[in-house]
């Protein structure tokens, strides 16, 4: 059922108000942080109220203003958008709690900026999720870039500035140089910016032009981190853990993949993509990205670096699922979007917890830490199993659908890629886990790599507070729950990618 | 082309009031002694003009090509000169923009201008009268009179209150450049008036009335000559590459107040839309390739030079050259989206460029310099100023969500349609704008604090916050609600597009 309603607009306004609340309550902690929590919960509720309307393939729309008669800034929530928005809202609440534990709640202006930008990030994410057309999507896509930049450079070190510069350069550069021309070309060929399931472009435009436009989209949507526009993601790892969680699980990369899905489903349409042979092209690019990224991750020792390259590979799983152009592949792609978010955020939370407890940042330093940090390592194990794709986690279900999709599409080579990358990711995650759980602990005198002052050198390694461990256990539990009972979510996902 | 008189619409001659209220305020200032009272009276005058200009926009009928709030009095009938004021969709928004910039300039110079404040404020008000006159005059000679009148306050403002050591030379250079352009402008206008005499229906009389001339076709040979004369004059004023040399120097040497007017009110481009497009449409269409080529060159050239500037004011100067190039490219595409985009960009630039220059002014007042060498780490001491600077910078980058974007986007659409790929690819070099503006922002506001002066810098005071807030909100608001402005110009733009593409050509075009 297609209805006009204020809910998408409200979902966009709530985080904006949340940001305003953060700034107003900057001297009162933890009320400042709770603004984000409350806004996140309200937002989650708003998104949930739209599930019945979109669950049968309907939409909820609201037009904000118009550029040109045919180019409005318009919001329209459909099932795909609700999936992205719901995931983001749920993880926003948890990440805010985690940030309180990880960064503290001092009335520091830098933290106020952090929480305000965090709320604004959610507004931009919701904006992308509920965009009714390319123009609106572009607007919020770029807004997301700008608003996450202060988060990436949060620590203010020269290293953070360098990482932030690269982040900004890649995002804005690709956005303006590739995405914007792609959108303009689309408009010139299609005469509209609107997303329509089945696509707005048709083969009359000429295949050479369409291929160019498609490639411009893939390069322009740098947030999806397809190679060769991936290197901003490792560079952005200079940010503190809650920010990495935001980039890797809640907002940025999800938005990237989401935009690629929109372009394939609602701009080109799967039929046209198939007709032009672009599905195969995408499969090749995604496969290369998956294998190369996994290979990189295997060779790294820095935990956050491993996770970053792991994310690059996992995002390409989703792109690959979409590019299979079969129902199973699409379901797998969207489910992996959700599942990867919960799994990867669990991993980030765990790595952050390790850092808080011991100031260790390298995989080789985790030897035997499992005995001191049982909860953290338990969560890490759940997250890792899910990324590898083992039952009973959500990662398994997603990978199952990807396999089904590959078989449906008759892409046997993809099965090989999936198998190889499963082995590679098992390689780098199990190496970490085995060492942490079974090796003898590191000598107590050795400081972690983050410990340059010596003051932090402590033999006592214990679990950090409940604000850190709690969110981590919740996301780990969801990772398992979705693996055991994905039914409800799957219904929505089938609608969203159908 | 119909006219709706001011008597019908407002009940009083609102345009004349707008033009002369600043002069009245100026005279009133002559009787005020105390400095505080002086500033208050001047500000009150400027705010009254702003309020009145908003009334004008509120009363303006959208969706029609009519000239509105018309006032017409015969002046020197023997040469066909009349006092004829009116606004249409092309010009109406520039009146509140001018009035807003004057208010902003007054607020920002509240404490910054200490030398001879009375004379300073009088010069600003004199400029306002001339500038509003330029936007509302629809008689060519009357327009020319206002155009020339602007020079005097401009010269005085740069020469006396400029910040740079070379201000005297910069002022002279500006005036000489403009006078050169004026000569061509007057020659072009007179050619048009004389050409009208031989047109059917003129009865052998001269006319310099825009509305009359618009309805009387000009032979192509005359059109071409007039086109080059007017284009030269307006290109100098705009400033359009390669006639831009005065711009960066003037922004660097002149006072911030004057820089705001020169950077924010793109009268040269306005001149193109007001006179060149409707009066010599065939010549403009024939030479639009040249305008497009120069426009694209300007976009690239301005951006590349801006990339290596270490001084914020020179950077804004070259960025401005780049933006004017973009606007000209929009005009050269001869279609509605290109023209709408160009007009929107002009209004947006008024806000964005002013915001950038205000940032320069705030920084200059605090640190004594706007050069990168003296800055670094400002954001730590001045978070509010840094936020305002960021909004201004994003506007200059034409990022979506700021007022810079709709204009750029529409121009890009128009250019794609008219010129195809090469131009479109060239336009994506606005990415260079992102580079130069954001690099500057990062170096000036982020990083380590390197000087004790920066370390001791205070953040924006309440009065400054209000000034910055008005601009910041406007930049964001028009980014999300561009139709609030586009609706004003759409009918007039459609009419212009019709003139630029005679019926036969339209059929072939679409």
Tell me what the structure shows:
The complex is a heterodimer of chains A (498) and B (510). A three-stranded mixed beta sheet of chain A has the order 1-2-3. Chain A is globular and about 70 Å long. Chain A has a domain at 277-450 and 459-498. In chain A, a hairpin with a 2-residue loop joins strand 2 and strand 3. By secondary structure, chain A is mostly helical. Chain A is 71% helix and 4% strand. In chain A, helix 4 packs antiparallel against helix 19 (466-484) and helix 16 (374-388) runs parallel beside helix 19 (466-484). Helix content of chain B is 72%, strand content 4%. Chain B is built from 26 helices and three strands. The two termini of chain B are 26 Å apart. Residues 505-510 of chain B have low confidence and may be disordered. Chain A binds chain B through residues 64-68, 73, 109, 135, 138-143, 146, 153, 156, 158, 161, 165, 168-169, 172-173, 176-177, 180-181, 184-185, 187-188, and chain B through 337, 340, 383, 394, 397, 399-401, 405-406, 409-410, 412-413, 416-417, 424-425, 428, 430-431, 434-435, 438, 442, 446-447, 480-484, 486.
Feature tags:
heterodimer; A: about 500 residues; mainly alpha; three-stranded mixed sheet; 20 helices; globular; B: about 500 residues; disordered C terminus
List the helices and strands and how they pair.
The complex is a heterodimer of chains A (498) and B (510).
Chain A lengths: L1 E3 L2 H18 L6 H19 L1 H5 L3 E10 L2 E7 L1 H25 L5 H21 L4 H19 L5 H33 L16 H14 L11 H4 L5 H10 L1 H17 L1 H6 L2 H22 L3 H21 L3 H32 L15 H15 L5 H16 L2 H27 L27 H19 L2 H11 L1
Parallel strand pairs in A: 1-2
Antiparallel strand pairs in A: 2-3
Helix pairs in contact in A: 1-2, 1-5, 2-4, 2-5, 4-5, 4-10, 4-15, 4-19, 4-20, 5-6, 6-7, 6-11, 7-8, 10-15, 11-14, 13-14, 13-18, 14-15, 14-18, 15-16, 15-17, 15-19, 15-20, 16-18, 16-19, 17-18, 17-19
Chain B lengths: L2 E3 H4 L4 H16 L5 H25 L7 E10 L4 E7 L6 H15 L8 H20 L3 H10 L1 H11 L5 H31 L12 H5 L5 H18 L8 H8 L2 H9 L2 H13 L1 H6 L1 H20 L4 H21 L3 H32 L10 H4 L1 H14 L7 H16 L1 H7 L2 H16 L6 H4 L6 H19 L2 H18 L2 H7 L1
């Amino acid at each position: 059922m297609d209805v006009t309603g204020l809910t998408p607009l409200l979902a966009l306004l709530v985080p904006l108000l949340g940001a305003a609340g953060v700034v107003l309550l900057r001297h009162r902690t933890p009320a400042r942080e709770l603004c984000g929590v409350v806004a996140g919960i309200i937002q989650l509720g708003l998104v949930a109220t739209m599930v019945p309307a979109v669950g049968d393939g309907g939409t909820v729309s609201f037009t904000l203003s118009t550029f040109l008669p045919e180019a409005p800034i318009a919001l329209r929530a459909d099932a795909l958008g609700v999936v992205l928005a719901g995931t983001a809202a749920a993880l926003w609440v948890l990440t805010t709690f985690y940030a309180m534990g990880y960064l503290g709640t001092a009335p520091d202006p830098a933290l106020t900026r952090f929480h305000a930008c965090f709320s604004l990030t959610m507004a931009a994410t919701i904006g992308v999720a509920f965009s009714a057309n390319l123009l609106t999507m572009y607007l919020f896509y770029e807004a997301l870039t700008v608003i996450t930049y202060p988060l990436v450079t949060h620590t203010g070190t020269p290293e953070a500035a360098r990482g932030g510069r690269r982040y900004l350069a890649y995002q804005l550069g690709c956005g303006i140089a590739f995405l914007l021309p792609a959108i303009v070309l689309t408009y010139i060929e299609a005469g509209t910016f609107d997303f329509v399931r089945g696509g707005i472009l048709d083969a009359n435009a000429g295949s050479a032009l369409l291929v160019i436009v498609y490639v411009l989209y893939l390069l322009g949507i740098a947030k999806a981190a397809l190679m060769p526009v991936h290197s901003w993601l490792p560079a952005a790892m200079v940010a503190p853990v809650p920010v990495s969680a935001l980039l890797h699980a809640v907002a940025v990369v999800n938005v990237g993949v989401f935009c690629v899905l929109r372009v394939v489903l609602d701009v080109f349409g799967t039929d046209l993509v198939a007709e032009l042979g672009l599905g195969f092209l995408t499969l090749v690019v995604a496969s290369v990205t998956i294998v190369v990224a996994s290979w990189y991750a295997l060779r790294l020792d820095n935990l956050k670096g491993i996770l970053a390259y792991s994310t690059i590979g996992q995002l390409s799983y989703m792109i690959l699922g979409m590019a299979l152009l079969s129902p199973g592949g699409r379901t797998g792609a969207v489910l992996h979007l959700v599942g990867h978010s919960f799994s990867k955020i669990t991993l980030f939370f765990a790595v952050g917890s390790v850092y808080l407890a011991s100031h260790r940042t390298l995989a080789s330093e985790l030897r035997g830490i499992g005995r001191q940090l049982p909860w953290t390592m338990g969560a890490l194990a759940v997250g890792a199993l899910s990324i590898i794709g083992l039952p009973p986690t959500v990662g398994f279900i997603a990978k199952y659908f990807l396999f089904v999709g590959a078989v449906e599409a008759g892409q046997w080579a993809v099965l090989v890629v999936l198998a190889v990358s499963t082995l590679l990711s098992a390689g780098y995650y199990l190496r970490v886990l085995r060492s942490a759980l079974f090796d003898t602990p590191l000598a107590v005198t050795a400081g972690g790599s983050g410990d340059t002052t010596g003051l932090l050198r402590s033999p006592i390694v214990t679990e950090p507070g409940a604000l850190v461990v709690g969110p981590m256990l919740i996301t780990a539990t969801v990772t398992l729950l979705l693996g055991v009972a994905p039914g409800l979510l799957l219904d929505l996902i089938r609608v969203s990618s159908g | 082309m119909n006219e709706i008189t001011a008597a019908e619409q407002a009940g009083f001659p609102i345009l004349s009031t707008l033009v002369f209220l600043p002069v009245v305020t100026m005279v009133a200032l002559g009787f005020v002694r105390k400095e505080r009272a002086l500033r208050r009276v001047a500000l009150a005058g400027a705010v009254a003009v702003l309020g009145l200009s908003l009334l004008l926009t509120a009363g303006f009928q959208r969706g029609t090509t009519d000239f509105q709030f018309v006032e017409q009095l015969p002046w020197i009938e023997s040469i066909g000169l009349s006092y004829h004021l009116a606004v249409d969709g092309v010009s109406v928004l520039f009146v509140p923009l001018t009035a807003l910039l004057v208010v902003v300039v007054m607020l920002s110079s509240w404490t910054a201008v200490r030398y001879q404040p009375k004379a300073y404020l009088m010069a600003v008000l004199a400029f306002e009268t001339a500038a509003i006159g330029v936007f509302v005059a629809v008689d060519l000679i009357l327009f020319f009179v206002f155009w020339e009148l602007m020079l005097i306050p401009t010269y005085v403002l740069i020469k006396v209150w400029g910040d740079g050591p070379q201000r005297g030379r910069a002022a002279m250079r500006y005036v000489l450049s403009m006078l050169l352009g004026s000569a061509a402008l007057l020659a072009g206008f007179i050619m048009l008036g004389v050409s009208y005499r031989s047109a059917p229906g003129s009865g052998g009389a001269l006319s310099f009335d825009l509305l009359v001339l618009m309805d009387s076709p000009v032979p192509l040979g005359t059109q071409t000559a007039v086109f080059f004369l007017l284009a030269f004059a307006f290109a100098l004023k705009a400033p359009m590459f390669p006639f831009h040399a005065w711009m960066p120097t003037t922004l660097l040497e002149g006072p911030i107040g004057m820089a705001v007017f020169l950077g924010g009110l793109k009268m040269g481009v306005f001149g193109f839309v007001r006179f060149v497009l409707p009066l010599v449409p065939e010549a403009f269409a024939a030479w639009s390739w040249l305008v497009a080529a120069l426009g694209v060159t300007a976009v690239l050239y301005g951006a590349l030079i801006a990339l290596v500037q270490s001084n914020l004011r020179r950077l804004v100067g070259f960025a401005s050259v780049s933006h004017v190039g973009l606007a000209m490219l929009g005009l050269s595409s001869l279609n509605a989206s290109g023209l709408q985009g160009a007009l929107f960009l002009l209004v947006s630039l008024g806000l964005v460029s002013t915001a950038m220059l205000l940032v320069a002014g705030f920084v200059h007042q605090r640190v004594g310099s706007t050069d990168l060498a003296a800055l670094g780490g400002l954001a730590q001491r001045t978070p509010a100023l840094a936020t305002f600077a960021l909004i201004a910078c994003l506007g200059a980058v034409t990022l979506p969500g700021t007022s810079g974007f709709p204009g750029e986007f529409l121009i890009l659409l128009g250019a794609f349609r008219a010129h195809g790929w090469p131009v479109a690819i060239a336009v994506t070099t606005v990415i260079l704008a992102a580079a130069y503006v954001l690099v500057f922002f990062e170096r000036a506001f982020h990083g380590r604090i390197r000087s004790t002066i920066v370390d001791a810098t205070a953040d924006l005071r309440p009065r400054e916050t209000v000034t910055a807030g008005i601009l910041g909100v406007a930049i964001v608001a028009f980014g999300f609600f561009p139709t609030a402005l586009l609706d004003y110009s759409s009918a007039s733009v459609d009419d212009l597009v019709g003139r630029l593409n005679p019926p036969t050509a339209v059929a072939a075009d679409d």
